[in-house]
Amino acid sequence: MGTSGGRQSERANRLACCLLVATTSIWLHVSPALAQDSADGFRSPTGNIQCMFFDDDASVRCNIADKTTPLPPRPQDCELDWGNDFSLDETSRRGVLMCVGDTIVGDYPELAYGETFERGNISCVSERSGVTCTNVRGAGFALSRAQQLLF
């Protein structure tokens, strides 16, 4: 009985070792992609506004944490978070106030006042008055604590 139990224990140890190596290899392989994704965005100098760019659909999404304006009425079909996220893609004719069930809030680098962050045909400018994102059509949104405009 001691020999059989010893073999099973040895097999379990080898399996655990292999799983640890495989898990570590997968984690090391995935980590650079996650780091790259987190850098594809920015935050305002105050940290109140954070934006992330998405290459798959050539779009930007921004979240504003603190604002002094009341929310517009929630759409009847929106059962998720409402009023803090805005989006724009390259072909949009107007910025969009989003109903979302996830978040883009993360650890993004600061976009200093007067600086522009561009991806494809979308650019976002950080100013003391807030963040404005536009596409080549001139559509977009402007975000600040005092107001959130879609155009």
The percentage helix is: 10-25%
Order of adjacent strands in the largest pleated sheet: 1-2-3-4-5
CA-atom Rg in angstroms: 23 Å
Structural class: alpha+beta
Major sheet: size, sense and barrel closure?
5 strands, antiparallel
Beta strand %: 25-35%
Give the SSE order as H and E letters: HEEEEEEEEEE
List low-confidence stretches: 11-38
Give average pLDDT, whole number. Answer: 82
**Span between termini:** 77 Å
- Per DSSP, the total helix count is 1
Number of strands: 10
Gross morphology: globular
Question: Can you walk through the features of this model?
Answer:
This protein is α+β, with helices and mostly antiparallel strands. It is built from one helix and ten strands. The protein has one helix spanning about 1-40, and strands spanning about 40-45, 50-55, 60-65, 80-90, 95-100, 115-120, 120-125, 130-135, 140-145, 150. A five-stranded antiparallel beta sheet has the order 1-2-3-4-5, with no helix packed on it. The protein has a five-stranded antiparallel beta sheet with strand order 6-7-8-9-10, with no helix packed on it. A hairpin with a 4-residue loop joins strand 2 and strand 3. The longest helix is centred in the first third of the chain and has 37 residues, at about 1-40. The model is unreliable at about 10-40 (pLDDT under 50).
